[in-house]
Amino acid sequence: MTEAPGTSPGPAASAAAIAADVRSGRRSASAVTEQSLAAIAAGDGEVNAFALVTADSARRRAEEIDARVAAGADPGPLAGVPVALKDNLCTRGVPTTCCSRILDGWCPPYDATVVERLAAAGAVVVGKSNMDEFAMGSSTETSAFGPTRNPRDTSRVPGGSSGGSAAAVAAGFTPIALGSDTGGSVRQPAALCGVVGMKPTYGTVSRYGLVAFASSLDQVGPLAATVADAALLFDIIGGHDERDTTSLDRPAPRLASVVDQGVDGMTIGVLAEYLEGADPAVAGRIAQAAEVLAAAGARVEEVSVPEVRLGLSAYYLIAPAEASSNLARYDGVRYGLRVDAEDTVEMNVATRSAGFGAEVKRRIMLGTYALSAGYLDAYYGQALRVRTRIIDGFAVAYERCDALLGPTAPTTAFELGAKLDDPLSMYLSDVCTIPSNLAGHPAISVPFGTGSDGLPVGAQVLAPALAEATMFKVAAVLEAGAPVGGAA
Q: How far apart are CA 266 and CA 298, in angstroms?
């Protein structure tokens, strides 16, 4: 299934179009589901986008939706739409492993809130998508189920950690998917695979049932073939949830109705720091994106937020510290894997040694060190102060600008294995996405042409907290004006 660079097996029909057909009776949910399952069976052997395909339950679900349509009921705005769920979203009675050996065989007794909301909207879950173990990675190469490959060129990575979800959409297995974004894990794979990926404002989408990595940073977000489908998916999963104490007690922004309103009169800032170190072809595409926005009536100017240069350093103290705490629960007693030993302490050590992969162990040790006596204020405390500076830096920029523009990733997709032995180089893949997580702000990646290697480039739009509507208006203009093929 190796594709020529810049090509793809082709996206599925839009989620909105599928749902409209199913609700009207023009197509059956069962037929749509079979088409998705057939595409997965034909192509996922090489791509490896799925950790688990739930074919039987998907077929039963499709039959239920068809019965509702036949009875004159409306199954919802995603009626019959196949969807892939990242394997860190709890699904009742279905294995949820975070692609880690330590959760081998664990089946949650409940659904995540976003899974419940998808079901209420009529969606059909066709499987759990592959991911970097516990969402720790930028290439989907740390999974216990083996690496996912980029459908645009299967010698390349799909990005991470939601690489399976991005690949599922890019390969046309499903029109939409859910991922989680802690430091760019929805947006960066979206950019590398040439699909749309969005990180919402922190607190607008429930984290209940999302297996925690870094609780102050994690956020569930949509991946889709189009901006409109991403907006539709956000409208369904967003909103207050009393079971999530970090959920904002206010209505989430509504996006589907505003996507096509344009950017006339907006001020868009091109973020200078995000172009530092970017591949020249990627930087060239962002310059073209700025021209598209200017032609659509926006005022475009260069903006500097120097504080974002500190984002990578702060993130790799805060996120591992929170991971060290969150992953302490996997001790061989309550969940998944247990390696027997002579006493409880040895059992804990043996289980965690066998169950966690190298990258997860690296981050647990880094986080435990940052939280240890004598180092807490020097490292973790200092990182929190830097986080505040980044928030303040963005606030100054948003006094002048409605939204900001920059690359999602500094390069296009790199070769499988190229960065596995160089963690710092791997971490730099998220240098343009991490600041939005630290600030809690929304951001979206939109495909915008290709680089000099013919692989997709993602243009990233950033906006203030709760300004998703503004962000999606900009994203839609970029999508409509994106170049087709050719090097920048």
A: 5
Q: What is the mean pLDDT of residues 346-370?
A: 95
304 annotated active-site? no
Q: 168 and 22 in one domain?
A: yes
Distance CA 233, CA 186 (A): 14
Catalytic residue among 139, 161, 247, 445: 161
**Total residue count of the chain as it appears in this document:** 488
What is the distance, to the nearest Å, from the Cα of residue 408 to the centroid of all Cα atoms in its chain? 12
Q: Is the pLDDT of residue 9 over 70?
A: no
Catalytic pick among 86, 128, 199, 473: 86
> Do the Cβ atoms of 89 and 223 come closer than 8 Å?
no
Whether residues 141 and 280 share a domain: the answer is yes
Smallest CA-to-CA distance from 442 within 473, 469, 465, 419 is with 465
pLDDT in tens, 383-439: 999 999 999 999 999 999 999 999 999 999 999 999 999 988 999 999 999 999 999
Average the pLDDT over 120-133 and give the result.
98
pLDDT over 70 at 2, yes or no: no
Q: What is the pLDDT of residues 429-440, one digit of tens each?
A: 999 999 999 999
Q: Are residues 253 and 323 in the same domain?
A: no
- The label of the residue with tokens 């007690």 reads 249
Q: Is 86 a catalytic residue?
A: yes
Question: How far apart are the C-alpha atoms of 486 and 449, rounded to whole Å?
Answer: 7
- 198 DSSP 8-state letter: E
Q: Could you say which of 143, 185, 206, 445 is catalytic? A: 185
CATH code at position 33: 3.90.1300.10
Q: What is the pLDDT of residues 446-485, one digit of tens each?
A: 999 999 999 999 999 999 999 999 999 999 999 999 998 5
CB burial string 254-288: b at 16+ within 10 A, e below: ebbebbeebbeebebbbbebbbeebbebbbbbbeb
Q: How far is CA 445 from CA 232, 406, 432, in A?
A: 16, 10, 11
Q: Are 131 and 88 in contact (CB under 8 A)?
A: yes
Q: Kindly state whether residues 183 and 242 are assigned to the same domain.
A: yes
Identify whether the C-beta of residue 479 lies closer than 8 Å to the C-beta of residue 226.
Answer: yes
Structure tokens at 363: 């981050």
Is pTM, for the whole model, over 0.85? yes
| Residue 161 a catalytic site member | yes
Residue 42 shares a structural domain with residue 145: yes
